[in-house]
Known about the structure:
- The complex is a heterotrimer.
- Chain A is built from 11 helices and 10 strands.
- Chain A is α/β, with parallel strands linked by helices.
- The longest helix of chain A is centred in the middle third of the chain and has 16 residues, at 175-190.
- Chain A starts with a strand and ends with a helix.
- Chain B has one domain (3-266).
- Helices cover 39% and strands 20% of the residues of chain C.
- Chain C contains 12 helices and 10 strands.
- Chain C has helices at residues 46-53, 79-85, 102-107, 117-130, 135-138, 148-160, 178-195, 206-212, 230-234, 237-242, 249-260, 271-284; strands at 3-12, 20-30, 35-40, 65-67, 70-71, 86-89, 166-170, 198-202, 215-220, 223-228.
- A 6-stranded mixed β-sheet of chain C has the order 6-7-8-3-9-10, with helices on both faces.
- In chain C, strand 9 and strand 10 form a beta hairpin.
- The longest helix of chain C is centred in the middle third of the chain and has 18 residues, at 178-195.
- The chains are: A alpha/beta, B mainly alpha, C alpha/beta.
- Chain A binds chain B through residues 52, 55, 57, 79, 82-83, 86-87, 89, 91, 93-100, 102-103, 106-116, 119-120, 123, 137, 139-141, 155-156, 159, and chain B through 4, 9, 14, 135-137, 162, 165-166, 168-169, 172-173, 176, 217-218, 221-222, 224-232, 235-242.
Amino acid sequence: MSDFIELNQVSFHYPENSEQQxxxxxxxxxxxxxxxxSIVGANSSGKSTLGRLINALYIPxxxxxxxxxxxxxxxxxxxxxxxxxQMVFQNPDNQIVATTVEEEVAxxxxxxxxxxxxxxxxxxxxxxxxxxxxxxxxxxxxLSGGQKQLLAIASVLxxxxxxxxxxxxxxxLDPVNRRIIIQKIQDLHHKGITTIxxxxxxxxxxxxxxxxxxxxGKIVYDGKPTDLFALDQQKLLAFHLYPPDLIKxxxxxxxxxxxxxxxxxxxxxxxxxxxxxR
Amino acid sequence: MExxxxxxxxxxxxxxxxxxxxxxxxxxxxxxxxxxxxxxIQSVTGYLVLLGFLLLLVLLSRVPFRYFLxxxxxxxxxxxxxVSLQIFFTKxxxxxxxxxxxxxxxxxxxxxxxxxxxxxxxxxxSSSLLTLTTSPMRLTSAIEFILKPFSYIGLPTAExxxxxxxxxxxxxxxxxxxxxxxxxxxxxxxxxxxxNMFKRLQGLIPILVPLxxxxxxxxxxxxxxxxSRCFQVGMKRTQLHPLIFRSQDFFSLGxxxxxxSLIVIFL
Amino acid sequence: xxxxxxxxxxxxxxxxxxxxxxxxNVTFSAHPGExxxIIGQTGSGKSTLIQHCNGLILPIEPNHVFVDDLDLYSMKKTISGIRKKxxxxxxxxxxxxxxxxxxxxxxxxxxxxxxxxxQVRTRVETALQTVGLSYQQYREKSxxxxxxxxxxxxxxxxxxxxxxxxxILDEPTAGLDPFAKTSLLEEIRKINxxxxxxxxxxxxxxxEIANLADRIYVMDEGTVxxxxxxxxxxxxYDTLYALGLSLPETSRLLHFLSQSWxxxxxxxxxxxxxxxxxxxYMKEKGLWN
Lengths: 278, 267, 289
């Protein structure tokens, strides 16, 4: 039984890198359909590179990557792979090409040579999914950062992907817009989309059920986010991981003897739990 | 002062008029025909009838007249200059109408001035009719269509069209960026308004260099994002709103050509 | 000697269709040696306010904006003097780097001052050192080829080289990963404590404001809604929540706890201290042994 996405002993260095220094090394990772996986690490840990390897934007020099059975290094499979796995990028502005919202969402389907009727259907559906229907004729520069990211998500949804990779989608947004985007991503995951969420923010890691930590191109942890923060503090610092404040409080309380049989990730949850302790 | 607010993309004013609904290719063609006709007409009556015709079209477009007047602003200086040149420097036969020191105004000069004035006004109105009633997107599609025959001799028309779209898309964004850069560099003591020509050009470096750098970065990011959504250079693409000729378009074109021919022939 | 803003109002594009009132009767001050934080959503007027502090936007009436007792209303011609005194670092300042070498870029702001090349060199060296970059190592490098965090430090050094008395930072840690964020904040604290530079910091990050600021202003729709010390401000959970602003995690936790646990100190923002306070409370009330 093979997994939806399989990376087998993958190593990759950027072609223009003269020393051929690997951006990712010996990556072994399996992702099941419908999962919500977060990939976290410091800025040059290789996490973005990993995302781009999965949707065949880069091809590894060593090892293989299979997406739904298709090999990424097989050039005839590039389009089908990208129809299956789409990507939303970090900079809202630098992924929008069209002069109106609806034209932007139509860009992908136009590339797939779908009929006008089909394109119009997909544009409407996608705009509904991100609540941007009323902004159809807006030029992108009049949208807020959060709305631009929602537009990017709609553009990607119009390709009907089974999986979406989010490459630090909130790092250039303010807190309000960040919440909106994360909520939308969670909604889409509930609708069945396999979600890979790349971030350097520790608090965002808590939204996923499985976290992969990358450090200097290698995977150094693969498991539950809450177990991650229970690890030795020195180790976490070495990976440039800073536990969210709430986790720090919980770990401190644990050391003082308070038991935590279940993982807790939100302030309200923790308050409720402490109040009913005896 | 925010640069972005001052520039409306392509001057397009959305609307539901007859003119808005016409196929952009027809409109483009009509604009070109109109501009040719402007130079074919030889009589003042002809110009006035044409002007009347254009004003009728302006009415049909349901775009407020002040937008058309705004279109004249950029060439106001040009109009004043050209008209003045005609008035003061056209030599004519017979006696001058007005003479003072070395200035002589002949009837031919006045006539030529009126002609040139009318021509300039008509040209601006014609092109405004096009740009005010056609969205940049549709205009680009129309231009792509017109360039299509050249693709058979190797001109990358689809790519040119995509480049135009992307350029239009980023103009407001880059203006915003320029605004920010001006503020940031001003805070570092950069001066943009003082000094001679040379100094001012030098003062642009702290703005232009970062803009270029970020534009290259943008281009890289954009290329990856486009490829990620299955864009491939040279491949065929379909359209969200394909340009389809309807009978109204041909009818309008026919009517247009007939009317203009009448004006040219009889006036 | 301070930045004083009294009852300031400002409208963008006055008289046009786009007219927008960005500031309404805002009163604000930054006293020598302080770190003042400004928080508020996008569009709350924070940018407009700080641009008034260094004269990028000049007041249209007298008696509203004062820097060291000088009314900026009358300073149009001599505004460059103010720019030296009040340094302003915008968001993502790495975008403004353009010179061929780090040294040249950091020295850019010094062109207006008639300094000898030795003096310039010293200023550049000191500024780079303050942001944690070695002069010898970085001076010849091209700013464009540096990492994001390094670029940001170079941009900051460029303003520090002008020896400002006041330093305004607009979202200084935006987009940085936690590691870079922590070290930059440390440097900001050092600049304040060691070089006695008054700091005004605009931020969305409640935690960093809570840990650094001596006083905070909370803005919404062009007005100052709350002001005071971090403890005072973060106690106003309901107001902040209504404004769409969040609190530092620890404050939130203590706020929720204070609904059932009367008397718990909910002004704490440090997570470890928070745990201690919780433990102390539980022991005192006999909830835990």
